[in-house]
Amino acid sequence: MRASDRAYSTLRTDIIDWRLAPGDILAEVEQSARLGVSRTPLREALSRLVAEGLATTNTGRGVVVSEISLEAVTDLFDARIPLECAAVRIAARRGDPAVFAPLAEEFACAGPLIDGDGDSDGQAAYYGLVARLDHAIDEAAANPYLLQAQKPIRTHLARVRRLARDNPIRLLHSAHEHEQIARALADGNAELAEAAMRVHLHRSLQHLTTPSHAGHGAALHP
What we know:
The protein is mostly helical and 222 residues long. It has helices spanning 3-16, 28-35, 39-52, 70-94, 97-108, 111-114, 120-141, 144-160, 168-186, 190-208, and strands at 55-58, 62-65. Strands 1-2 form a two-stranded antiparallel sheet.
């Protein structure tokens, strides 16, 4: 792997997983030493992160991790909702019920993963379950154009989801919403699957943009 690709991959993961938080300065000297690369490949990596919207240039501070604003989250969901609803509608028509029925049961039993006194391993397992449902929907929809359109949105969504991880009540509600989506897909009911997805996404957006949630995670900036 090229040095610039390695630096980009590490920095991108650190930003998405919040090891590098919004507003953190990505100083060239410090990051070059940390990642074991020279400054030229590091600059290439930083340019890719800026192009992807995960970092931004700031006069006087250099490159910094981009902030997550209320406006940005709303814009993200404005793009996400129609794409996810289209995907789940197609998946309900094309998918194999045998794939989605077991996933619905896993979501029905997901409570202990979420409500484990903030256990990070349990929440990681829950998000792994969400990722498996997303993958199953992608596989069933089998629409490469739709998938390509969703990729940049999912990159930013992975970072935004961190804001809900310290709120087990929201995650329990989310598990129930995902269960309803999976059950509708198992039944091959496109209208119900789309409706369940739309409800889930609107509730997720409402949670993320409600000021009272800030105590459960990093605050959004107006």
